[in-house]
Structures are given as structure tokens and as C-alpha cells.
């Protein structure tokens, strides 16, 4: 038990509160280990019929893993210690995916990276008014993980590729439309929703009574263009399609120009890895996706771009990363394949 994550019982529900509001409830290894142990205990407790997960404070559900701490470990040459975080996090994601009781994530605020990993794989994901989903990893020289290789290709159309390559935020309406959330409930009703969920009425019935129409968000507004322009199998091809659209007189021209400019700020290596994940993950089962991500993270924590990206965004905050390689053309197919290759020591055990 750690004060960074709180567990309690209310009626038929086990409640988990991610409790680092000043750090936007970012996950550390202690939280991951404690959460996994508690979920395993509740799985065999007949008195607990559902699990509810919330984030403390009003700003975030969970803004991801504690990337700054992992950066510090890597900078100190302690790559093996840093890798332990992901070696524990990915089995937690797998446990949530396979959990045999209703797992309800109440998402009101930022949900990024690891925060999506402890929500999107659950059976029920409820988006509040402040909900903001994103997988922004390509902007820090990392890659979309925590099961993104599974869920990004299964988002409608090419919205998963758009999410991976741009890091753009999806609001509550977009989250429901794209499958990141299953229900939309106003934030002010969350306390009453929690109270109702702690009873014995079925989770589906309770959420059905509270849910409201999600509406249409800004990402979905451009879905036809996203599906048309992000269907390529190379980042270069997608950017070329966006550039052509930007030079047209179409309604999506300005949006395409802005989107292309956004992508060009990201790590070229990360962009190619992310698109490869989306395309390959479409044919992978969940376990293969998670094992693949551990292969990638085992390599990427030794790459320059991860440390340069974190430096630029989280340490010095100058937002001017100097990527290496600096261009997509200089990222070889062999370099991408190297990240996906089998590990000499074998794949990560996920149970």
C-alpha cells in the first residue's frame, strides 16, 4: 500500500484512486505493483463484483507514467532499473484487458499514455466533461505503448494512425466516437454515479441510466479527411497526402496544413515506429502486441531521441528537440526492424 494509490471497499465495489494530483496522477512503479496486487485479490473476492478507478483532483485521471523519473534513471546509466517499470506495467495492462469482472474507469481530466493503459483496456470507460485523451509519445522520442499496438488499429477508420502520429487530444465526444470511452456522463454526476455503481444493480444498467449523447468532437469533424489522408503505409506518404490537401481549395486545406506541420515536429524515428505499430498491430493478438512493445521499449531506452525529447519537453522545457536522425529519409527500414526484433533473453512474461 502506498499513499500514491488508494484502495477501499464500498458496497459491492472495489475502489481505486490514483492519488498523485500534483503530478497529474502519473504512474510510478509502486502504484503499478500495488494496483496489480489489489486487482488480483479482488478477482477472487466474491464480495467484490466490480472495480471502479478514478483519479484524484480535477486536472487529470492519469497523465501517463512518471517519464521524468525514468529519464533520470536512463541518464544515470541505470537502463535495467528503468526497464523494470515497463516490465511491471505491461502485465498490469494485460490483467486489466483480461479482467473477468466489470472494470469501470471514470475519466475526468487528462488521460495520456499510461493513463490510457489503465483505462482503455477495461470493460467500461466513462468520459466526463474535462476528459482529454492523447497518446503524445512521438513528441518525446518515445512510442505509443501500454497496448496502443492493439487499440490504435482498432479505432474507427484511420483515427488510430492520426492519434499516433499527431499526439492530438481527443475530447469526451471524440473519445466515445473513437472507442476510447464507452459512455459520456457529465462530471457533476460522477459522485452519484459512483454511489450507484457501488450497489448491486448491473453496471450496464447503471451506466445506461446515467449516460448522455456524446455529441461530435473536433477530431470526428475531420474523420472523412483523416480516413482518406492517413491510409498510407509510410509517414512520408501520409505527409505528402496532407501537403497536397493543404494546397487544395478544399474545406480541409487549413486543417491538413496544420496537421502536417504538427507531425513534422515529432521524432522521425518515433513516427516510423508508431505507424509500423498501427499497421502490424491490426493482425496481432493482444499478447503479441504487448510483447512487441516490450521489445521496442527495451531498445528505445538506449536511443538518443527519448532523452532529447524528454529534455526538451519536461526538463529544460524549451520545446526545441534536436532529433537524431533529424529527417524521415535518414531513418532506415533496418533501424525500425531492429526495434521489433526478438529479444535475446526472450519475450516478457505477461502473467
Automatic annotation (TrEMBL):
GO terms for molecular function: 3-hydroxyisobutyryl-CoA hydrolase activity; isomerase activity. InterPro entries: ClpP/crotonase-like_dom_sf, ECH_dom, HIBYL-CoA-H. GO terms for biological process: L-valine catabolic process. Coiled coil: none annotated. It is an enzyme of class 3 (hydrolase). Pfam families: ECH_2. Keywords: Hydrolase, Isomerase. Residues 14-340 form the Enoyl-CoA hydratase/isomerase domain. Its EC number is 3.1.2.4. It catalyses: 3-hydroxy-2-methylpropanoyl-CoA + H2O = 3-hydroxy-2-methylpropanoate + CoA + H(+). GO terms for cellular component: cytosol. NCBIfam families: PRK05617.1. This is 3-hydroxyisobutyryl-CoA hydrolase.
